[in-house]
């Protein structure tokens, strides 16, 4: 017979979540990590790599998968009712972290704006562009994710109701 109730509390083993899982609960930490990595990836991969369309398309796709993966990893920890405020706040914090990284890169002379080096005059426009593009992508993804979750819950709920009805009929 298995021992479900240990005799001493020392026998209890508390399972701590892994480091990434702990970070994924924090909106600020996830957005900060995402913003910094997206900006650094954008600057060093897109501006220093080949200029053919295949390479650019693949690197943009990898960046989008990373961005949406981080958003999904964060939102998956919370109920759908919290998506309404978590997604816009995540987008704003991600863009703020991205623009902080951009400011540091401009100060170091490493930030690119198209094919030329970015200057402080470009920073506000780059921030608005990041907010529109990345913020829009995050909001659209959160809406699609919420819709998919709602459909899955409804479908699974209907299947479970059907199984419950069948079991109750069999018992009678």
- Count of domains: 1
Sequence of secondary-structure elements:
HHHHEEH
Point out poorly predicted stretches: none
Rg, rounded, reads 23 Å
Head-to-tail CA distance between termini: 34 Å
Helix/strand-derived class?
A: mainly alpha
Portion of residues within helices: over 70%
Q: Care to describe what's here?
A:
74% of the residues lie in helices and 2% in strands. With 172 residues, the protein is an all-alpha fold. It has a two-stranded antiparallel ribbon with strand order 1-2. α2 (27-46) crosses α4.
Characterize this entry briefly:
By secondary structure, the protein is mainly α. It has helices spanning 19-24, 27-46, 53-75, 83-108, 120-171; strands at 112-113, 116-117. The chain has one domain.
Q: Which features does this protein show?
A:
single chain; mainly alpha; 5 helices; elongated
List the helices and strands and how they pair.
Blueprint: H1 19-24, H2 27-46, H3 53-75, H4 83-108, E1 112-113, E2 116-117, H5 120-171
Antiparallel strand pairs: 1-2
Helix pairs in contact: 2-3, 2-4, 3-5, 4-5
């Amino acid at each position: 017979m298995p021992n479900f109730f240990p005799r001493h509390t020392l026998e209890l083993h508390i399972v701590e979540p892994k480091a990434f899982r702990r970070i994924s609960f924090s909106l600020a930490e996830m957005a900060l990590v995402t913003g910094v990595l997206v900006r650094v990836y954008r600057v060093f991969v897109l501006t220093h790599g080949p200029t053919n369309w295949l390479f650019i398309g693949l690197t943009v796709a990898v960046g989008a998968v990373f961005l949406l993966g981080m958003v999904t990893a964060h939102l998956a920890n919370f109920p759908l009712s919290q998506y309404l405020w978590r997604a816009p706040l995540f987008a704003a914090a991600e863009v703020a972290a991205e623009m902080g990284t951009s400011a540091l890169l401009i100060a170091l002379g490493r930030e690119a704006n198209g094919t030329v080096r970015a200057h402080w005059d470009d920073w506000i426009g780059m921030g608005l562009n990041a907010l529109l593009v990345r913020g829009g992508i995050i909001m659209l993804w959160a809406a699609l994710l919420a819709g998919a979750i709602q459909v899955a819950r409804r479908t699974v709920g209907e299947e479970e109701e059907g199984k419950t009805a069948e079991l109750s009929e069999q018992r009678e």
